[in-house]
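Standup notes
- DV: blocked on the single-chain target, sequence here:
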Amino acid sequence: MSPLSGGLTNENYLVEAGGARYVMRIPGQSTELLAIDRANEVFNTLAAASTGIGPRVHEFVRQGDVMVLEFIDGPTMSAQTLRSKEMAARMAASFRRLHAAPPFLQDFNMFRLIKKYLDIVDKHKVTIPADYRKRLPLLREIERTVGRAALPSVSCHNDLLCENFIDDGVALRIVDYELSGNNDPCFDLGNTAQEAEFDDELRAALCEAYFGQLDERQLARMNLFALMSDVGWTLWGAIQAKISAIDYDFKGYYTARWQRALEVMESDRLVQWMRTAQT
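- DV (later): unblocked, structure below
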């Protein structure tokens, strides 16, 4: 058994047995404070596996919430390897398959998650950016805006770090369903565009590949959800900085997220996206 790098929440190990390879996932400490529901994760991982996009679940040990998963043989993606129109099209194809999965167990709503995270911040005296709460009225306005052209909820991943894509040579497989839940598909599109740092051209390409045509209204909603990814994961990073035993600069992570979010919230782009999303 050997450790696998890259996880920011859990411990992951490569296990070889009987001539086969598997991934064993062991939860990190106090992950309930990150609003992670392990029953939801297992249910959704099984549903995602039925599409061929998620990894197969070989075993789940309820005591300790340990999962033994299919080892997907292929390179793990990065922002650099995903940043092309070809890869945007492949990502869209994987999303269409994942979003056609049987309904997930629970719903996911970033706006509700932010409220939950703020309750945790207060209860556990977590340090967050000093001006975070000043932006809450704007977040409510964004929530109303994206709700006006909401798409039917589908089975979404919701936490699309570039490293959660693995290229098996046929499809881009998607792993790690801790925060998965039924959601507007534009959240997955916007979230992954933010993680891969797509420019405007690649965001449009991803939108066009997913919907079959460039839909300016849904592209604007993607961009608003991309912003909300930074806003929400700022709190995730702040909580991790307080509770995690993983050797990682979570303070630097959430500070950079918040600064990037502020740049958008104070720009003309936000005004344009909100106007387009409502027309």
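- Follow-up: The two ends are 54 Å apart (CA to CA).
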